[in-house]
Amino acid sequence: MASSPLVDSAPFDFHGKRVLIFIVAYNAARTIEEVLNRIPSSLHSSAVEVLIIDDSSADDTFVEGLRFQHQRPPFQITVLRTPENQGYGGNQKLGYRYAIDHGFDIVALLHGDGQYAPEKLPELLAPLVRDEADAVFGSRMIDKKAARTGGMPYYKWIGNQILTTFQNWMLQTNLSEFHSGYRLYATHALAQLPFECNSGAFHFDTEIIIQLVLKKFRILELPIPTFYGDEICHVNGLQYALNVCKAMVRARLHQMNLFFDRKFDVAPPEETYDLKLGFTSSHTMAIDAARSGAHVLDVGCGRGYVGAELVKKGCAVTGMDRLVPAEGQEKMQFIHWDLDRKEFPVNVSQFDQIFMLDIIEHLKRPEDFMDELRFATGCKRPEVIITTANIGFFATRLMLLLGQFNYGKKGILDATHTRLFTFRSLRELLRQSGYKILEVRGIPAPYPKALRTNFISRLLVWANEKLISFSRSFFSYQIFVRAQALPTVNNLLCETINTSQELRQNALPNLLQDLERPQQTFGHKLV
Fold first, then answer.
1. Above 90 in pLDDT, residue 399?
2. Is the dihedral of CA 313, 314, 320, 322 positive or negative?
3. DSSP state of 408
4. What DSSP letter does each residue of 217-274 carry, written as one string?
5. Is the N end or the C end of the chain the one with fewer CB atoms within 10 Å?
6. Structure pTM?
7. Which residues 6+ apart lie within 8 Å of 295 measured at CB?
8. 53 with 24: CB under 8 angstroms?
9. Phi then psi for 208, rounded to 5 degrees?
10. Is the dihedral of CA 72, 74, 75, 81 positive or negative?
11. Could you tell me the residue ranges of all domains in the chain?
């Protein structure tokens, strides 16, 4: 591509921000000087530095970069060469780390082969310096016809749109293109992404978009011209497409809490879960089990969302947790308490039902807790409703079969879970702790939470319920148990003694009368 003549233009307003123009280069000895010359004069400023990283090229890319550096360029320039080839993604990792470590506010990615127009840099930089975006992508597909006019091969044009459509569907985004290499980032955003965990291959670009989306950063697309010249393409198209699809599936499974991938673990931690209403879930089953008018203790109530639903049923609810209840929960009492403490801050024996929803797996010693709870109930025999994750769920078994057992922020393998249960192990814990099992049911996976409430998610819940009826231990995502706290031996002995005394007092007069009657009859016969 012929060099574009530089046109004098007004200096670019950087708003006090420092910009790194980062050029990834591999076998770009013929084109690197041209790319540097095409950087607009409006960016010839002390606020700009150009970084070239030659990824162990087989030609003189590094030497050509040094040659330009020693010709007194209009901007500061740094030329580096990797000790061994890092790949397209690996090279980006180095550049972004350089930008963060050297205090740049913005990093703009260019390619050393000249495929992306440096002339567009001021236009792409503007939204970032005005803090209107966290990432700006130059898109060739905003005007799809222009992409073909610019020489994009037809098979790439079609493949680009197919992959982009799939990726938008998976991430619920609306980007025109996922596969442009012309990208600019705010370094404060990059510093919050685990991009160093990403692939060193070409689908690094897909993985960093996923991270930006999951982190809810602002992405802006602007049109750029398409140019395909005689540069050598180093991308294996089929392998690239396969890697993109694998990355999207892994990210989606991570979002659904069925699979954990550290590089996609960018969302802030959730201290409590949202209500799962409108479909069969741990919350709907527990709420249905609540007796109208009952006095309920909601152990580990979180922000009090389930408790609010119980209040609507006419229950008197007392919540107990270390978290602060949400606004609008004034109708229920709330006690701040660490559940790992042995004693209870309330008279447990006054409650008719005790709710422990998704709590037992968070306790350090659930056996001790259940023993203390049973002791605190005295002789009242309240109903205890427990829900917990089923480690025997088929997806967890499958991951284990494939060598995967990674904790995440939500789901069965939530990193805050200290104990995991199957149906059998939970039943044994309750029986040995002195509880009578009243009911055990399986709970389907919360597909509407992962896929939004729609026909497909409702169909999956229905299918999951049918499968649970076939094999509860294999297809249940969670376990639902209704149990009754039986008195401890000490409490039962006291109850036995007290009851016996009452019975003795009631029965003794009649007993004495009965004992006297035979004596009177015998005496009469003797007379």
1. no
2. positive
3. B
4. --EEEEE------SPPP---HHHHHHHHHHHHHHHHHHHTTSS--GGG--SPPPSSPP
5. C
6. 0.73
7. 315, 316, 318, 350, 351, 352, 353
8. yes
9. -75, -30
10. negative
11. 19-255, 282-443+474-485, 491-527
Question: What are the pLDDT digits (tens) for 160-181?
Answer: 899 999 999 999 999 999 999 9
- The SS3 call for residue 109 is strand
| Beta strand 383-389 pairing with 353-357 | parallel
Q: At residue 355, does pLDDT exceed 50?
A: yes
Mean pLDDT over 395-404 rounds to: 86
Residue 96 backbone dihedrals phi, psi, to 5 degrees = -70, -35
Q: What is the pLDDT of residue 269?
A: 63
| Secondary structure in 3-state letters for 9-34 | CCCCCCCCCCEEEEEEECCCCCCHHH
For domain 19-255, give the CATH number.
3.90.550.10
Q: Which residues pair with 137 in a beta bridge?
A: 183, 221
- Cα distance between residue 327 and residue 305, in whole Å: 10
* Residue from 423, 401, 420 nearest 412 by CA: 420
Task: Count Cβ atoms within 10 A of the Cβ of residue 241 and give its class: 0-12 exposed, 13-18 middle, 19 or more buried.
Answer: middle
Residue located via tokens 């609306």: 174
- Across the chain, mean pLDDT equals 88
**Within 10 Å of residue 32's Cβ, how many Cβ atoms?**
27
| Contact in structure between 112 and 119 (CB atoms under 8 Å) | no
What is the dotted CATH code of the domain comprising 282-443+474-485?
Answer: 3.40.50.150
Residue type, 271: E
User: Angle CA(30)–CA(110)–CA(38) in degrees, nearest 5?
Assistant: 60
What length is written for the chain? 527
Within 10 A of 508 (CB to CB), how many other CB atoms are there? 10
Strands (E), 65-193: 76-81, 106-111, 135-139, 183-186
Question: What is the SS3 assignment for 209?
Answer: helix
Closest CA to 268 of 217, 222, 319: 217
d(C-alpha 402, C-alpha 366), whole Å:
30
